[in-house]
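Q: What changes when magnesium ion is included in the input?
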Amino acid sequence: MIDLIHVTKRFGVATAVDDISLSVAQGELCVLVGTSGCGKSTTLRMINRLIEHSEGEIHIDGQQIRRFRQETLRRRMGYAIQSTGLFPHWTVARNIGLVPRLLKWPAARIQARVEELMALLGLSMEEFAHKYPHQLSGGQAQRVGVARALAADPDILLMDEPFGALDPITRESLQDELRELQARLHKTIVFVTHDMDEALRLADHLVVMHQGRIVQQGWPLELLREPADGFVESLFGGEDRGLKEAALLPVSQRMQPLGHDLPARERIGQQASLREALSVMLWRHAERLTVVDDDGQPVGELSLRRLVGARRDD
Ligand SMILES: Nc1ncnc2c1ncn2[C@@H]1O[C@H](COP(=O)(O)OP(=O)(O)OP(=O)(O)O)[C@@H](O)[C@H]1O
Ligand SMILES: [Mg+2]
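A: The predicted holo structure follows.
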């Protein structure tokens, strides 16, 4: 869906992005991580042509982006940023309707779309539609920013630290919402963050950048287990690596399937991560948990030995 082929960006003599190649498949959530100044935002902004690349080619659906009309890019790509970029003198509703208005949708259609998006992001019309950005909390403003990015139903979403300023609880709930939204609407998303836990929670495809270059990319577990160099390894947090891996693996992967009646024990959902299961074990002083499905029906058992990946169960 999105292809960057040997793309370079220079600002004067400085090279911000240095010969990167990257393909993002349709429906994939690709996360760019790396330290400050490594070229993440520049990469994102070259995709929607807020910044023109200096060398190489960028394709959308196999077509060079330079061939697309501005209006087409605007319709196909939503863009959300940390500072939200909301217009301070416009109401929430007007801010969300920005792109549809630029695309000259009829007023009734814009209104319907704004209502639909506010519902989707859990913002009540009565409470928020007529508020101004300064009357919103940071999390509400970021939701409005995301709603605005989705307004013209783009198939590509570019998100530059959209949850950066949020407390961990609001942030996690927005991360969950984004994953759900992506599963439901099949958007192709390029998401920039420098928070490794956020990257691991979200990414199907993880790209590590350093000093303008891509040092490694692939499936998150692959990078975690086989980091290409010391820099990638350090991003995965040394001693915390085991927990970061456990956060990526579901309970269902290590549980013993149900074979007999289980005694009453602490329960854990089969979709929960091994990290969550470990936390329950630590907190409850329990070495075994009953694994249940979405309806709360027992489907198996997870022992501490199985959780840590031992082959045999006692
Ligand atoms: N318009 C510009 N003119 C000159 N240099 C720029 C411009 N925009 C970015 N740069 C430089 O390009 C490099 C990459 O910047 P970029 O904003 O892409 O980094 P980043 O990875 O997004 O960092 P952060 O995590 O801090 O947001 C930096 O060294 C920056 O100073
Ligand atoms: Mg940036």
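Observations recorded in class: The chain has a mean pLDDT of 89.
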